[in-house]
Design brief:
The protein contains 8 helices and 14 strands. Helices cover 19% and strands 18% of the residues. Among the domains are: 102 residues, LysM domain (Membrane-bound Lytic Murein Transglycosylase D, Chain A); 142 residues, Distorted Sandwich (Glucose Permease (Domain IIA)).
């Protein structure tokens, strides 16, 4: 008997039944396998060709002209009644074509003032003073008919370059950034390699420096408690022994109340130029003692100064003549001189100062 011979089934045992696989299941299995192969093949095709499978199928059946010709848009033909906002071409920008970039030179004419010139050129008066230091020495009174002045294009410092100057030093001196100088169009500088020749003028826009007001009439303070008035040195000076006290209320010293002709009050001109015409009467703004009457240097011309006590002093110039005498006590409204244009002046006016304790007081704060 073979070692592994199958043991015959015992009588009464039935043999296991072998079932055949249904045909439909076999077909479905093969169809699914083929579908998966097809999908994998299409995925590989799309990956390497870079073309969309859907686009491929959409192109099937179309003629080459349909698939290759670009689409065209219909011609634009708006209806006759189409409403819209008309906007014409305008090459102008917000920057005025009239904006100056260069320095303008003018010759001072009769009636010109530093303040008026500044208004005409849309500048601060200091900018004109700074641009003309060799001529005006920071003194607005030195402006006179026939003088040539440089008018800067913008506010700031018009600076003449010197041998050895450095941009960072000059910028710091006038309180601006180096970029302010480099980027100003009127300077026409190469920002990568700025070269400025000695003697060349450059604009420092926004630059600032203190005014050198050495031209102001020096006033030596008096001792009110001891009856000693203030003193101004010059040929029209005197030393009164007593003070005639004022009321403390200052009136308009010229014939046209509130009218200014020329310079108003500003940092470079600590006074107002009241309007008057040659020969008009000039009056004491308040009661006091005359401490100066006569000519004086510094551009003031003929001048009268009155000590009102309590630290107040008023100054009147450039008079055509003076009526008051030094040491005289005057009452408020008394005629002390006549309007004129002596000294450095381009026209008749009254330069009127009020000082208190040696400091300048804006006359507009106290004038009635």
């Amino acid at each position: 008997m073979p070692l592994f011979a199958k043991k015959p089934a015992d009588q009464g045992e039935s043999a296991p039944e072998i079932r055949a696989t249904p045909l439909w299941l076999m077909i479905a299995t093969w169809a699914l396998a083929l579908l998966m192969l097809a999908v994998s093949g299409f995925a590989i095709y799309q990956y390497f060709s870079g073309r969309s499978l859907l686009a491929y199928f959409r192109g099937i059946g179309r003629s080459p002209a349909e698939t290759a010709a670009p689409s065209t848009l219909p011609e634009y033909a708006p209806a006759a009644g189409y409403d819209s906002v008309a906007r014409s071409t305008d090459p102008d920008t917000v920057i005025s074509e009239d904006a100056r970039k260069d320095v303008t030179e003018i010759q001072v004419e009769s009636g010109d003032t530093l303040f008026g010139l500044a208004e005409n050129y849309s500048l601060e008066p200091e900018s004109i003073l700074w641009a003309n230091f060799p001529v005006l020495q920071d003194n607005p009174h030195l402006i006179s008919t026939g003088v040539t002045l440089k008018i800067p294009p913008v506010d700031g410092i018009l600076y003449q370059w010197k041998e050895g100057d450095k941009l960072d030093h000059i910028a710091g001196l006038y309180k601006v950034d180096v970029e302010d100088i480099l980027l100003y169009p009127g300077n026409d500088l190469d920002i990568t390699n700025p070269v400025i020749d000695p003697g060349e003028f450059i604009m420092i826009p926004g630059g600032y420096r203190e005014l050198q007001q050495s031209w102001i009439v020096p006033l030596e303070g008096g001792d009110v408690s001891g009856g000693v008035t203030a003193k101004i040195n010059g040929p029209g000076s005197c030393t009164p022994t007593s003070v005639y006290y004022g009321t403390g209320a200052f009136g308009w010293p010229a014939p046209y109340p509130g009218q200014v002709s020329g310079n108003d009050y500003w940092d470079g001109h600590p006074a107002i130029d009241a309007q008057c015409f040659e020969g008009d009467g000039i009056y004491a703004s308040d009661s006091g003692t005359v401490i100066y009457a006569g000519p004086i240097s510094g551009g003031y011309g003929n001048m009268v100064a009155i000590d009102h006590g309590h630290g107040y002093v008023t100054i009147y110039a450039p008079l055509s003549t003076w009526y008051a005498t030094c040491g005289q006590a005057v009452v408020k409204g008394a005629a002390i001189g006549a309007c004129g244009s002596t000294g450095n002046s381009t026209g008749a006016h009254l330069h009127f100062e009020i000082r208190q304790g040696g400091s300048f007081l804006n006359p507009w704060y106290v004038l009635q």
